[in-house]
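Contributing: when you submit paired examples, paste them exactly as shown. First protein:
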Amino acid sequence: MRTTIFVPGDAAALALGADAVAAAIAIEAAQRGVAIRLVRNGSRGMVWLEPLVEVATSRGRIAYGPVAAADVPGLFAADFTTGGAHALCLGPTEEISWLARQQRLACRRIGVVDPRSLSDYIARGGGAGLRRARAMAPGEIVRAVTDSGLRGRGGAAFPAGINWQTVLATPAAQKYIVCNADEGDSGTFSDRMLMEGDPFCLLEGMAIAGLAVGATQGFIYVRSEYPHAVAVLDAALEEAGDFLGDFKVEVRKGAGSYVCGEETALLESLEGKRGIVRAKPPLPAISGLFGQPTVINNVITLASVPDILAQGAAAYRELGIGRSRGTLPFQLAGNIKYGGLVEVPFGLTLRELLYDFGGGSRSGRALRAVQVGGPLGAYLPESQFDTVLDYEAFAAIGAGLGHGGIVAFDDSVDLAKQARYAMKFCAIESCGKCTPCRIGSTRGVEVIDRIRAGQHEQIELLQELCETMTQGSLCAMGSMTPIPVMSALRHFAEDFGGKCE
């Protein structure tokens, strides 16, 4: 009888030596005459424990980590293939406190299934949502998504059901489902983890969306920096067979532009053009890819759909708080002790996420600031750490949850330098179509440099420049760049040598 051993093939685990560990396990097992089945699963999201090796036993899966290739002979000597005691043994994986305290829905199978096996996906509950959707009318599917309260997980948090209803109601011979997997925000990796660890969930969500609006063609636009995700998606599509029915999916690599995360720039890129934003209206739901009605959702949005259809809209809506329903996979990064993926219902506070899950700073110093929502998100001071993780609560303090990425900084951070980074990032990544973004960001870097050199009277000019960019930019690239700048000025004025009124 073969023992199943899981070694993550996730990009983060690979960066920490997972391939060497897998190779060492295969060699050691062969030398000892131990029959094993080696599965390259996704990461569970506990990055500080990677590579995390799991062994299937009669007591469930037993975890060991972090494992180096040099540890493998000792693990075999300790009979780890039956869950034997070892210094690296963490016990049953599902009982690890960091995992047990989460409530995973979209990410429930990440790290659990073999990402290249459709049969494993089905055995773990996959496909139930698609089967139910096939027995429903398109309008009923859209109503279920609407009633669930699901909002887009890509940043804007627009109700997904309204978007789908618009596409459904717009007559056209051809409609499209586009998955925005151009996950380019700093501190974000949930899309990558899902594509690498549970690709069939994404494909199922896209197929359900196709049934809902009458689309037969889907595209997954993956950033070029995610080669492992592309490889797993290609393998899953090869394996899918008739699982998706008449719905066809193509994987397209992005062109390396941050602004292609904006939906209309993404559409331009998909059409083979330069990735620059389109003026709206018309909305993509009415005239999107190749001028046809198009649903554009990000990975986690679409991956949330199968569970909504399988369990019912009411079950999903019961989770969360206010208008923020369901769960969101938060990503802890930066100067944080326990970085990784935490999926919980809306309603926790930022402080609970940072300390109960994150364990505080990795450096051991006090956390001074966190940036939530990517490089264009607000810098929040410790006095706002008790803000509830809720779209409206964050909007009330001039911030946003975005894609759920959280980057932590200890008390050694210079927020004026971080504000300069935001302007410089915009100057580099701007598509150049509108003047406030293209020129404003360049002038912003210059103004902040003068402020940091002691010309504190320039703070007022910086504020006026930010207002111009906010009001005049064509898309979120330029209009949101002032958010980190102004939040740094507001909450950390001492780093600029002046005060923000």
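Second protein:
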Amino acid sequence: MKFLLSLACLLNISAFFAQVDVIVGGTPEPMLLSVAPPDSIVNFPDTEAEYPGGPDSLAEFIFLNFILPNDTMDIEFNDERVYLSFIVEKDGSLSNVVVEKGVNEVYDSICVAVVKLMPNWIPAQKNGLAVRSLMRLPISIDDAIIGTDNDFAEEDWSEEDSEDEGSNRKFGNGHYAGFDVYISQFANENGDAIFDKNPYWEINQMKSFGMNYNLFDLKFPIVGKSLGITTGFGFGYHNYSFTNNYVLAHTADTIFAVQDTVFNFTKNKLQVGTISIPLLLDYSLDKNFDKSYFIAVGVIGSYNYGTKQSLTGSYSNGDQFVNSTISSFNMNRWTLDATTRFGYGHFGMFISYQLNSMFKTGHTVAVYPFRIGFNILFGL
């Protein structure tokens, strides 16, 4: 009996030691207790996932694809935001789109639909490898419906310039509104400044200055914001200083001048007030008005609303006199100038040449004013 009991104990001890690995010398290798699944989300990647083209392209995509059904136009909102989250997979596709904080059922569902329409993103990376990542995206309902202040990449006026960088007008960045300061010269029909048979039309160009105050302009696009048609509205003051001692006179059919042999005029000026409207082909190299070279070529139509001749001199006793004569002087009420304007940013130069004579045809010789000056532009 004792023999059988001893044999049983021996067998149990042998079985126990047979199940244990005996390590002889050295240090045991550490055991990996758990391994993260290969498709888990990486919370702290080296580079975050990104919409292709960056934030501006993302804003453009949301704006173009946020479509309101007709029966939701009367829903009120005050720049509210829908907060979404989704997973950007290793291949850039999106999954698990969730509304974390919504506005209402309509806007929430539209935002989810917009995200599901998005193209593949650029996935996040960890150690040089694409990984899955969780993204959170707030969508402003205001921006999604009426657009943001950012310029979109497409060269389409209706989308790109609904909010113009550097200008808050839809039709902006024309090169007309501002101040023009210039000097003038009279030219005859041959383009010369000398009037041999009519010396009273000879003027001193350095004293014949003028100014235009152009209140506003509108640039209608042809190609993006670079090329367009610019028009506007302005007032002009033209001052022509005669070199000789002549007093203008006219009949119903003529205009001429009589030389005054009694007094020497210190100033002999013809002053003209006009209202003008331009029509310019306007081109700028850059969208940013402040940092763009520009050139504008076209015509400026003007209406002459008032003319007078001012004479300043002195009597034999030394007393000063100023005489003014207000008259139309048989001038053309409507004139048309060809002009070229060019420059950089808010500063430029211009030249213009009147295409029709200053005075009515047949009343005197043809007189064509020529102007050159500089301008300071508002850039509205």
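If you have annotations for the second protein, write them as plain sentences, like these:
The chain has five helices and 16 strands.
The mean pLDDT is 83.
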